[in-house]
Structure formats: structure tokens, C-alpha cells
Amino acid sequence: MTREQPRAIARRERILEAALAVFSRRGYRDAAMDEIAVEADTSKGGLYFHFPTKQALFLHLLDRMADLLMSRAEQAIAAEADPARQIDAALVVLRTFATHRALARLFLIDALSAGPEAHLKLMEVHQRFARLVARHLQAAIAAGAIAPLDTRLAGLAMFGAINEVVITWVLTGQPECLDDAYPELRAFLRRSVGLPEPSEAT
Amino acid sequence: MTREQPRAIARRERILEAALAVFSRRGYRDAAMDEIAVEADTSKGGLYFHFPTKQALFLHLLDRMADLLMSRAEQAIAAEADPARQIDAALVVLRTFATHRALARLFLIDALSAGPEAHLKLMEVHQRFARLVARHLQAAIAAGAIAPLDTRLAGLAMFGAINEVVITWVLTGQPECLDDAYPELRAFLRRSVGLPEPSEAT
Amino acid sequence: MTREQPRAIARRERILEAALAVFSRRGYRDAAMDEIAVEADTSKGGLYFHFPTKQALFLHLLDRMADLLMSRAEQAIAAEADPARQIDAALVVLRTFATHRALARLFLIDALSAGPEAHLKLMEVHQRFARLVARHLQAAIAAGAIAPLDTRLAGLAMFGAINEVVITWVLTGQPECLDDAYPELRAFLRRSVGLPEPSEAT
Amino acid sequence: MTREQPRAIARRERILEAALAVFSRRGYRDAAMDEIAVEADTSKGGLYFHFPTKQALFLHLLDRMADLLMSRAEQAIAAEADPARQIDAALVVLRTFATHRALARLFLIDALSAGPEAHLKLMEVHQRFARLVARHLQAAIAAGAIAPLDTRLAGLAMFGAINEVVITWVLTGQPECLDDAYPELRAFLRRSVGLPEPSEAT
DNA sequence: GATGAATGAGCTTTCATTCAT
DNA sequence: TATGAATGAAAGCTCATTCAT
Known about the structure:
homotetramer; Tetracycline Repressor, domain 2
């Protein structure tokens, strides 16, 4: 009875694209549903047919972005057999955001203007990443590559370190190119879990 | 000419207290100037006599909090002669927020709902801390306690790591007591700059 | 040509039932066509195929209810040969509503939220009842049971008296059981047309 | 601290006048706060400064009207020494509405579109009148002018009878002049409490 | 210095109705 | 006939800010 019509799926997609554009342009708070509707070439009612609230629309985008980043990180890690080097893969997040400053701003900063529900969702995202890192730290420990440590906290702290560098870049523009921070940040993260300095750069 | 009258100073102070209370209670966005006025036992006009905008009022509080935290951190560091241990002092921030969850939420999370100006101010605060840490890392390097490294980035990353742990605690309540994360976080931070595991706990 | 198909008739009936349920539950204004559609196990489009507007759907129910009440009243009156006692029969309306509070609320109160057209329809219903009463008052006058009077106005006023008692009960819950008001209301109505107090209760 | 400024009082009054005008013109539901604001020569914010919601504004008017009618009725009754004739005084309500059809429509019909709170308030008004009548019926009984009866119910029923006549007039325009119904309605009400037909008309 | 009153742009959301398929 | 999707016109309400007194 509730079969999705192709037209509806397409429209829904157009709405999400438009929402991403407008949220990026204006930030969560200053993004008006009116503008999203216009950008999606539909009506306000159409928006609300597909998404019950502005926040729900935003959270949907946040979910998507999280899934995208997670799968990228997992791919990067899967492509690397050496546990010690898998750590580097976590930095793929950095790389992704490096080329999408508006996106980074939206999901790392603006998400905190979107109310308590968004806070929780954002924390989920943070924890997904932290757990991903933690999982591979455990593998590295099991493989004897690094000494035992609290992987949960280490994952969180590593994510926080990366996050801070990205946020600083987003808000202050320093360093000019986010990639410039890559080598030192990588060294920092490796040290933080007791890995030796890598002899070769990426 | 316009010498500060004691009554005005007192009122200004009362407003700041009230604002802190209301902002903590409601968050930046949901804090109404009306409520602050009532809490400060004055009128809306009175508020605007002392502070030109809601944001200015908030930024003022943010400044104060930053100064307080900085001076606490500096005191803690000054009390410690051993460069290797001064690192620990940075964690005083953690300790301070550990007992003031509402404050932590306000200045670490809500500040990002307060508009671009607040973003910048918040970044300044982050960087003040990062620089403080960096300064002492340099001293540690000079003293030969740790190997050379990019102190600017390390300071930032360390701050980010601490920040993430605090934020997670604020928003998810884990760990139940923030102090529980202290030992492992300390170990993480020491490793991250190449310091050996401390033999004794705090 | 467009002979009514059994399926369509059944659906129409299901819609009316669903509408009655939802209108009763929510009141006219807060009843959403969506909810009626769901309750009728059909789609919004289906609703509008059978009824052109929300109001038309409501008016249809109002008509039905009026017919039902009228025929009940007429039956009750027909069963009573004594003109003087036929008056009592008008109170069958009271009895009917006494067991259907939600219905009473819907048709006596909510109908007034349904726009001018509903006002007129409701007035028609009132007048049908008033005329029914008037008709039997005329018979009673002709039979010499009561003295001549303006039967039109008396019918209206009697209906109004009954109506007020029902409405008060619906909205305030007093008296707890509507039937409790029956004897005194009956006495009031008999007096109002110059009938003597009945020696026996109903 | 919260002293009312004269200007504010005047504005509040202007708002109430404007609201009465717009509500009368459009009915409760279709009256827009925007229009009231314009009519009151103020801003929407101004409206909401003085009245928290549209409904509250309406209820305020309803209260006022009730007070006005009550005092008129009480004056009319006080001016009449004979208990048997005080009954007539209740009909002053009829007279008042007779010259203000829009008002009658607003408070007798539209009030039922204004939500449950308005229902309750309206019932209060009905009951105030019913009790006023009941009070004087009791006096009449005590004076031996009429036989004992349930004054509460009689008051309610009498009010309902009047109400129905007024409502019918408002919605159907019959009788052309509400006053035309006066003599017969008066006779109806006198009979209903066992008073003899008056020899002279009012 | 201080107050209460006033402003007004702007927001999200609702929902009866219509329409393409 | 029936369905899900789309429409779009309103509507009520908020609140930082300003102003007359």
C-alpha cells in the first residue's frame, strides 16, 4: 500500500541535495525551509511530506555523511594489511573533510546548533569513529604491534585530536591547506599509542 | 567623567551571574533575555544598558571563563618544577569541568550555537590553551625531557583529545565520573609527546 | 449508467463510520482527513472521491444523525395515543444522547466549529425538532388538552431547554447521569405548555 | 515595578476594541491576529505583549461581555420589586442581544469554535445566568409567588429556551425582529415556573 | 540609569485540496 | 476508481532589539 513511487524517490533525493546545499551555505539555524523548498524546486508542503521537521531533515543528512565517512575509512583500512599502518587509515576522515570545508563546518560545528537530538546523533557519529579506531587498536595489540592500552579512550582521544585540527582549520583557516597538518598529526597519533615514528611519509 | 558608579558595577555583576545561570540552564539559544532580566532582578532595558547584545553578554562570560581556566592551569603548572610533569597540569581543565558539567556544556558545546563571533572567540580560547601547552612542551624539549616535535600542532591535538573526552562525558554521561578517565587520558597524552609511562598515579 | 457498485457503497459506508469515529474522537476542527482515511483503510484520494470536502462529509453525518433522532422521536410519539403524554416523547432525544456523550458533543457543539454551512444545517435540525414538537402541541390544543399558544415558539423554546441541559451535561459532566435531570425537565416542559403535573413518573 | 503606564492601558483598550471588531466581522477562527494588530494600529508583537494567545484575547472579551450582561440583568431585576415580575428581567439579555446581532453570534455561536477552554468559559457564563435566574426563582418561591421547584434546573432550562430563540434569530433571521418573540417567550417562561399569564404586556 | 512597552521580521508547521499515474 | 505525492496559502507565535518616558 505504501509503495514508493519513483517520482517520489527522485524528489526526496532532490530535497536532500537542496538541503545539503542550503545548510552548507547558511548554517543550520539560518537555513530556511522556504529556501530549501525553492532550491529543491518543490513546495514547502512537499518538504514536510518527506521529512517531518527541519531537524529530521538535517539529521538525515548527518546520518548519510556519517555512513559515507565510515565506509571510506573502512575501505581505506581494509586496503592495508599491516595493523600498524591501519592507524593511518583513520586519517582518511581528515582527507575527506580537507576537500569539503563547508561540509566539515556543517557536520562538525553547525550540528551543535541543531538541538539536543542533533547533539546525541553527533555523539553517535563520534563514537562510531572512535570505536572503529578502537577495534583496530585491539587488532594491533593482539598482533603485538603495540602495547596494551584502553582502546576505547584512546579511540576517542585520537578522534578528538583529529577533530580539533579540522575544526581549527575550518574556523580559522589555519593551516592554509589541511593536508599540511597531516604528517605531524600522524606522528602525534602514532606516538600516542606507542607506535614508532614511521620511516617513510605517505 | 562617566565614572563607574558602585551601583552600576554591582548591577552589571548581578546581570553576569544571572546570565550564567540562565545560559547554563537553557543553553544559549533557548536562553531568553527576558528570563535573564528577571533573574538579575532588573529590566530588559537594564540589560541592554550594560551589554549591547545577547551575544556580547555571552562572549563576556566566555572570556571570563577562559581567563579563569587559564589562570588555574598556569598556577597548576607553576607549582610543578619538573617539565615532564607540567604536562599533567594541562589536565586541570579536565578537573575543573569535571565538577561543573553545566559549565562545560555551556562553553564547549553551546558556544557553537552562538553565531560566528562566538566560534571565533571559542577558537581563541582553544588556541590559548593549545599555546599554553605548546609553551611548556617547548620548555620540555629544551630541557631534553622529550624529543623535538611540532609543539603548535601537538598542543592543539592534546587539547582536542581532552576536549573530546569532556564533551562525550557531558553529552552521554560516560564515564559516570569524568575523573575515571583521568589516568588513561594522562597516559595517552604522555605517550603522544614521547614521555615514558609515569610510575606513580596522581 | 454509473450504477453504484457494491464495493463502492461498502467503501463509502466505511468512510462514514471512520469519519464518525474520528470526528467524535477529535472534534471537527482537529479531525484530519488523513486520520479518517487511515481509519477507513483507504487513501486521501479515496475520501475525496466519495465526498467533495471535509465539511460535506461532516454534514452528511449530521443529516444521518438528525434522521435517526427524528424517526426515533416519531416512533416514540406514535406509540402514545394521549396527546398530553406525547409531549414526553420529545424527551427521547435526551435519552438517546444520554447514552452517547461523544455523539452529543459532536452534533450539538462541534457542529458549530464546522463553518456557516454547518450552522444552517444545524439550525435545520433544530427546527425539524421544534416543528415536530409544535405539530403535536397543535394536536393537543385541538384535542383541548392544553390552551392555545404560539406552537412554533413553544416548540423552539422547549427544544432549547432540552438542548441546554444536554450541553451542560456534555461540557461540565453535571448531572453525573443525564437521566437524573429527566423528571424535573419533564415537569418544566409540561408546565411550560400549561399541562398539569403528571401524577405518575416514567 | 510593574506599574501600568497610561499609554499601555490605552493600547490594551484599543486592542480589545479591535479584537471585538475583527472577531465580530470574521468569526473566531477566521480572525487573524495580523488583522487585529492592524485594526488596533499596533504590531503583532504588541498584541502578544498584552495577551499571550489569540484564545486568551477572545476569552477576555467573553468575560467582559458576560460581566456587562450580568450587571444589566441585575440592574433590571433590582429595579423591580415584585418577585413575580423579576422573572421578566431575565429577558433583558434578549433585549441586549436584539440590538447587537454580531455580538450575539460571536458570543453564543463562535465561542464554540474557540477550543475547549472557551467551551468551559462559555458554560460558566451560561451557569452564571442560570444561577441568577435560580436565585430569583427561590425568592419567588419563598414569597409564595410560585410553587416549589428545582430552581437550578429551571434556571438552566429557561436560559436554554431564551438562548435557542436568540440563536435561531442570529442564524436564520427569524423572527425578523427579535423583539417580536418577546411576548410569547415571556409567556412561555412564566408558565414554565407556574406563574399566571400577565394581564398587561411590557 | 532604568523601565515597561512596542516593534516586526521571520520562523516552522498544518492540512484541506488537487493531481499524475 | 484509487493511491501516494504534491501543493500553497495561511497561521500563530517568538524574541532580540529599540524607544519614549
